[in-house]
Design brief:
single chain, 65% helix
């Protein structure tokens, strides 16, 4: 998956919390978020806030799908609220795809 495909997939599935997201899909969208936030911040605080708000739901959805891809529940994403939990999430997000189907795929089907 390339940069354009990842952005297209994440934005078209902006509120889909079931299924899986590959590492490239997650990280390319993460890069897009950073670039969009930097560009928006150059245009002003209001624009930056609107861009951040617009990308919040797709970012949460792709994060949950990425956790499903490694066999974890999407609820683990709440670890980000603890601060130090972000390190655990980053570790999980860089893990390779779990082979076979997982509980989250069976529930979503």
């Amino acid at each position: 998956m390339n940069f354009g495909q990842a952005i297209s997939t994440c934005l078209s599935r902006y509120a889909t919390f079931s299924g899986r997201a590959s590492r490239p899909e997650f990280w390319w969208f993460f890069l897009f978020q950073i670039l969009a936030s930097v560009a928006a911040s150059m245009l002003g605080d209001t624009v930056a806030a609107l861009v951040s708000l617009a990308l919040l739901l797709p970012a949460l959805a792709v994060g949950v799908r990425r956790l499903h891809d490694i066999g974890k529940s999407g609820w683990w994403q709440l670890l980000v609220l603890t601060g130090i939990g972000l390190l655990v999430l980053i570790y999980w997000w860089v893990q390779p795809t779990a082979e076979g189907s997982n509980l989250h795929d069976a529930v979503a089907a």
